[in-house]
Amino acid sequence: MKGNRVATALMTFILIAAIAGQSAQAEPASTSTTEGKQVVYIDERDYEGELLQCVKLINRNINYMNEEDNAANRAILTSGYKTRVSEFTPGFRVVEAKLRNMGKNHSGEYVAYVDVDSKLEKKPMITTIMYVLKQENNKWLIDQTD
Asked: How far apart are CA 49 and CA 24, in angstroms?
């Protein structure tokens, strides 16, 4: 009788763990809706550690650009932030972002190239944004976009 209870409890635990694991694996790439359109962000499942922190930061930047939330966006930029990309352009919307490449440079900063399918005043365009991410006060922030 005691053996049956243990076996039942063990099978229940295994079943719950399998269901939880299956739902975690089946999670799609991050998406949100902006102006009634679905936005596809960089899939975070393939990254961990510092790389995951940087990918999440890029995804937040894209979300803030789409929402035109300049205050939130400034909070994820370094004090010496530099740009030639006009993220704050009204009407600029990212529809899909794909991380093409990311690696650490000799200064310990991450450099990421993100291909974005975007729109400016409803006119479709595809472009690549280069991000330079560095730690400031033990926190990863965006130092430069180009």
From this structure: 18
Q: How many CA atoms lie within 13 A of 93 on its CB side?
A: 17
Contact call for residues 78 and 139 (beta carbons, < 8 A): no
Q: Work out the number of other CB atoms within 10 angstroms of the CB of residue 35.
A: 9
Strand residues in 1-146 grouped as ranges (E): 31-34, 37-40, 77-83, 92-104, 110-120, 123-136, 139-145
Cβ of 112: how many Cβ atoms within 10 Å?
A: 22
pLDDT tens, per residue, the chain with 146 residues: 555 554 444 444 444 444 444 333 333 456 666 556 789 999 999 999 999 999 999 999 999 989 989 899 999 999 999 876 555 577 788 999 999 999 999 999 999 999 999 988 788 889 999 999 999 999 999 999 98
What is the distance between the alpha carbons of residues 95 and 40, in angstroms, rounded to a whole number?
Answer: 6
The two three-digit tokens of residue 99, written as one number? 């991380």
CA distance 93 to 116: 10
